[in-house]
Amino acid sequence: MMVAASEPCVKVQVTGVAGILGTDRSFLNVVLETTRADVNAAALANEAGEDRRLALGRTGVKLNEEHLEQLRSNIEELLRAALEHPDDDGVWTTFLWTAIDRQDRRTIKSSPAKTNRSRRSSPAQEKKE
What we know:
By secondary structure, the chain is mainly alpha-helical. It contains three helices and two strands; from the N terminus they run E-E-H-H-H.
């Protein structure tokens, strides 16, 4: 596991064949539980009349190694810019993002990169084919 910290952000990248084990899994569980607490606190604050913004989305995309790295790099660049140039009139906002392969990359045959992403299917759709 690789951890790089820059106040108040922590970047975690799990490496190795064994995957998430012991301490790594415990750390990730703490991050997820803290996020759950943040979501619940914001929802309760909204019910009490406060103005709290809460956005949550989940999607699956099919990306080769190059496009995955490009997406990760773009997200990290946006977050780094926000950390380096905070808004004086802003409020603290938590961002949690993940990029998780749902398939073993070693089992995917290499092919030329496709540019038409709208025609790509999800892992569930591929199983049907």
